[in-house]
Design goal:
single chain, 461 residues, mainly alpha, 69% helix
């Protein structure tokens, strides 16, 4: 009678279970153990069972044996016995065993893995290139770099993955050396690998690549610098920005410099300031952005100094950066700008003041500054923006500020709405202030919804 698919599945399951129990029994645990000390070499019976499992035509059965190779059956002698299985296996099983040897991580398997890397079968070659990450070292970098340069797409991926994972103190240096003789497309990939490995010791070579004649290599190096550069490279990035000819290269240099200043903060400022005098207008604009990222008193003064720059675009950028400054040290500058003749600058400055006056995590709203921003604002839009910030702070002081603005004809309706919103969130202990404020709202405000809200608040007191 023919065996049904269901019966075969049950049979495989039972055999798999029995194999697991047998392996565990041979390991002396009754079930498959999670760890075996290297002092307990596997028995010949266990090695034979693993060999039978790895050579099985059923994938699930092979998986049991391969798991033992990865995690159990320790020792160099066992590794050599597993290596001896390779010539006897079909292509698929051979590739699986090579990968398992890579995960096993025993350098004794390296010669066999290198031999498999020359296999006529691409699947086996790919597995071997990947396995080198577990059994290889810096001596294998040239081979992996060569496959990145000239291998199939699958080999290139496996070699790159292996280089990212490869262990050893000299691996980064070996990859850096390989860049020197690699074709442009391989150099690009090797630079990406150094980035993935966080290879900061390779920064001098990466900086050199950023000036390479091949645009793709130069751009890849700038991408690497965006992730890896440290404060000491600030001046180098400023120079790369100044000398960039192609738009794409300049864009990447900008991104690298801004990312660095976001990390290095005030440690980058000196080099940025030094680059300003000899920079063209476009570069000065980027340097102002970088100074704003870096922050600190010296950066603030350097940006403010460009309010008198000869170039209009640079002056505009200086105002914009000051309006976006991260702390309240910029407030006197913004008040000064807001009092100037330019309405555009005035709007940016007032919006910056309103933003800085608002509450943040761990910092209460600065109601004095908010009141100053409302006072100097020329347009209703900015006054309304400030009132929106005011309603986020419910206390007697914010209510008093909203009520004081009821005398401004331009703002009375908006101020009344804000006062009602604040009063609705105050505790009963402020009953006297709430009543006084709502009565004034009813005197000055015509909007029916605001009046109704004020009346309800009064009735609840």
């Amino acid at each position: 009678m023919p065996v049904t698919q269901k019966e075969r599945a049950v049979h495989i399951h039972l055999v798999r279970w029995l194999a697991a129990v047998l392996v565990g029994s041979l390991l002396g645990a009754g079930v498959v153990s999670e760890h075996i000390s290297a002092a307990e070499p596997p028995s010949d019976d266990l090695l034979k069972l693993i060999a039978d499992l790895v050579g099985d035509s059923d994938h699930q059965m092979r998986a049991i044996g391969l798991q033992q190779i990865r995690r159990e059956a320790p020792g160099e002698a066992a590794t050599r016995s597993f290596v001896e299985l390779l010539p006897r296996l079909r292509s698929e099983a051979r590739a699986e065993l090579v990968e398992a040897l890579g995960e096993r991580g025993d350098a004794a398997a390296r010669p066999a893995v290198l031999e498999m890397a020359r296999s006529p079968d691409e699947t086996v070659r790919v597995a071997a290139l990947w396995a080198l990450s577990g059994v290889g070292g810096d001596a294998d970098v040239p081979l992996l770099a060569q496959r990145i340069a000239a291998g199939s797409a699958a080999e290139q991926r496996a070699a790159a993955q292996s280089l990212v994972r490869l262990k050893g103190d000299r691996v980064n240096a070996a990859i850096t050396t390989a860049i020197g003789s690699a074709a442009p497309h391989a150099s690009v990939k090797l630079l990406e690998i150094l980035t993935a490995r966080n290879a900061k010791e390779s920064l001098p070579a990466i900086l050199a690549c950023a000036s390479a004649p091949d645009a793709t290599v130069a751009q890849a190096a700038l991408d690497a610098l965006r992730a890896l550069a440290e404060e000491g490279q600030t001046g180098d990035l400023v120079k790369l920005l100044q000398t960039a000819e192609a738009d794409a290269q300049r864009t990447k240099a900008e991104a690298a410099l801004l990312a660095l200043c976001g990390r290095g903060k005030e440690k980058c400022v000196q080099a940025l300031v030094a680059g300003l005098p000899n920079a063209d207008a476009g570069t000065r604009t980027v340097l102002l952005q970088a100074l704003a990222r870096a922050g600190g008193p010296a950066a603030l003064e350097a940006v403010a100094a460009r309010l008198d720059d000869e170039d209009q675009a640079v002056r505009d950028e200086a105002v914009r950066m000051l309006s976006l400054w991260s702390n309240r040290a910029v407030v006197p500058r913004l008040i000064e700008i807001a009092g100037g003749e330019s309405l555009r600058y005035h709007v940016l400055a007032v919006r910056g003041l309103v933003r800085l006056a608002g509450p943040e995590e761990g910092r209460a709203a600065d109601l004095k500054l908010l009141g100053e921003a409302i006072r100097i604002a020329k347009r209703r839009d900015e006054k309304q923006l400030a009132l929106g910030v005011l309603t986020r702070t419910a206390n007697p002081e914010s209510l008093a500020l909203a009520v004081s603005l009821l005398d401004d004809p331009m703002l009375a309706e908006d101020a009344g709405r804000a006062a009602a919103a604040i009063a609705g969130n105050l505790a009963p202990a402020q009953q006297s202030e709430i009543r006084s404020a709502m009565r004034k709202v009813l005197e000055r405000v015509k909007n029916s919804q605001t009046r109704e809200q004020a009346q309800k608040i009064l009735a609840a007191q």
